[in-house]
Amino acid sequence: MSAGKRLSPNDPGSYSLPEKVAVTHIDIELAADFKNEKLKGFVDLSIIKIDESCDHIILDNIDLNVSSIENKDDKTLLDYSIGDRLEVFGSKLEIKIPSKKKSIIRITYETSKTASALQWLTPEQTLGKVHPYLFSQCQPAHARSMLPCQDTPSTKFTYSAKITAPKPLTALMSAVPLDVIDHGETRTFLFQQTVPVQSYLIALAIGNLVSKTLSPISKVWSEPEEIDKAAYEFEQTPELLKTAENVCGPYVWKIYDLLVMPPSFPFGGMENPCLTFVTPTLLAGDRSLVNVVAHEIAHSWTGNLVTNRNFEHFWMNEGFTVYVERRINGLLNGESSREFAALGGLEDLKQSVDNLGAENPLTKLVVDLSGIDPDDAFSTCPYEKGHTFLFYLEKLLGAAKFQIFFKSYIDKFKYKSVDTEDFKSYLLSYFQEDSAISKIDWDLWLYTCGMPPIIPSYDTSNQDACTSLLNRWEQWNGSGDNFKKSDLDTFQTAQVIQFLALVLKSNNFTLFKIKAMQEVYDYNSNGNREIVFRWLRTCVKVKWIEQLELVFKFINTTGRMKYVRPIYRDLYSWEEARTETINNFENNKMRMMYVCRHTVAKDLHLRE
């Protein structure tokens, strides 16, 4: 795709024009064919003409094998054409539609074996090793490989589904389960989503799944081998959900379930409504990583209820969600815990800006994605730079007032897709009597590259202990028995993580010191992936060659991009390890989901 090209005026990554003809509801009827790794069936799209003179609808599609398209009412076949295929965004599917204002069109099709939204796992790739598994990941622009749709967050629709799977597998979706119909060797699972959603929130998982109840509206699902661990880890979910309602307003999605995914799942979590997908890397055994669950719960409002119009305004999904996640943290654990999390996020942001380059336009809050693959644009910037802006606004306008405003913003824009201008104009009108708004330099915050223009002053009490231990290690001359395992006794898990982030950033650590640190603290055998991730990056930085086996084992047993991509980039920079690193990737890439495989290949300079 040539640089600068937009597929449609309102969304650079979608051919569809919902401002002319919009899909309002989708009925999905699909069967999972594990042998051929395809979904087969049809979708019924309820459409409405916004522009009554329009005689066609444009849908997004990647490699779907369409066998027929008909008017559901009278079964007449409809003419359609499929345009040229672009590598990332697929093809335009243009369908001649009935003359009525409203109609339903049925598209019979099957997915391709290479559908980027779907990961088909063999039994060996699951925990149980007996049954296959399928899961989807549609954000940002992969739903079009699973079903023909208007694959843009600028429009929303309700949906219902009938999914047929072989016994004994269970199907789950980002919707409320209604019923299960037994056909002998297969079962059909019925679902309904009555709250309008955007295409990337359609989600499906099929596997040998069991559940445990956490509350009247929440269950946790996983393979049987992990269910007790998962139920323990996520026991606080109901409390997190209740706290989120205090921040954002009523929860509208009826149920909130969690599904612990197979290891190849590429994200920490995915906020599929009614059914958050979470990485198994959260199962630390000490409930220390539930901030990811708080983040996904927060998306029930910021992202799912109020949605970025396109991914150029992705900070409105993610920056807002980090803000809510940390508000939840503050209400449950105190304001100092909230602000300490923000300081940790700032370190992650510095790393991201350094990696992308401070002048990279993708470090702006509002970005131009014309001709850019949204997967390639993904970074920490919209999350942490976005959060910093909202925290700055809270400090500037007063916490109590800003928090009331925030709730009213969600209420005003619920069920809608918005852009940065909508937020800006609502805030300026809400606070029009407050002279402090004149201090906000919108252009500087929204359209300037690099780190945020202003870093708010955060409570550093939790950070100070980390810095103090860091200074002791930096100043140590290598002689004497200066450190003990008990150094970390008073540290919360978040402080150990932050201490290691500071060690990674520091240039005052030799291989000798890092080996000494392993002797004292034994990070190699730690069960918390956030700790091990920062530790192994530090080992690579000081070129500790004997640790390579452990490093490869770590990146080969998770598909979570937050871990895999930075470590692969670090390894690529270490010349002696580069060939072995590329070989390791080639040998393991087919265990990765498409988005992880695709982006790591770029990190390793194996594609443009």
Automatic annotation (TrEMBL):
Q: Which SUPFAM superfamilies match?
A: ARM repeat (SSF48371), Leukotriene A4 hydrolase N-terminal domain (SSF63737), Metalloproteases ('zincins'), catalytic domain (SSF55486)
Name recorded for this polypeptide: Peptidase M1 leukotriene A4 hydrolase/aminopeptidase C-terminal domain-containing protein
Q: What is its main location?
A: membrane
The similarity annotation says: Belongs to the peptidase M1 family.
Q: Which UniProt keywords apply?
A: Cytoplasm, Glycoprotein, GPI-anchor, Hydrolase, Lipoprotein, Membrane, Metal-binding, Metalloprotease, Protease, Zinc
Gene3D superfamilies under this entry? 3.30.2010.30, Neutral Protease Domain 2, Peptidase M1, leukotriene A4 hydrolase/aminopeptidase C-terminal domain, tricorn interacting facor f3 domain
One annotated GO molecular function is:
zinc ion binding
Write out the coiled-coil annotation as residue ranges: none
Fetch the InterPro entries from UniProt: Aminopeptidase_N-like_N (IPR045357), Aminopeptidase_N-like_N_sf (IPR042097), ARM-type_fold (IPR016024), LTA4H_cat (IPR049980), M1_LTA-4_hydro/amino_C_sf (IPR038502), M1_LTA4H (IPR034015), Peptidase_M1 (IPR001930), Peptidase_M1_C (IPR015211)
What's its membrane topology?
Answer: Lipid-anchor; GPI-anchor
Instruction: Provide the residue positions that the database annotates as binding Zn(2+).
Output: 295, 299, 318
Give the cofactor binding note. Answer: Binds 1 zinc ion per subunit.
Q: Where is the Peptidase M1 leukotriene A4 hydrolase/aminopeptidase C-terminal domain?
A: 461-604
Query: Which residues are the active-site ones?
Result: 296 (proton acceptor), 383 (proton donor)
Q: Which GO terms describe its biological process?
A: peptide catabolic process; proteolysis
Its required cofactor(s), as named, are: Zn(2+)
Binding site residues for a peptide: 137-139, 266-271, 560-562
Q: Which Gene Ontology terms of cellular component type are present?
A: cytosol; plasma membrane; side of membrane
Q: Which Pfam families match?
A: Leuk-A4-hydro_C, Peptidase_M1, Peptidase_M1_N
Compartment list: Cell membrane; Cytoplasm
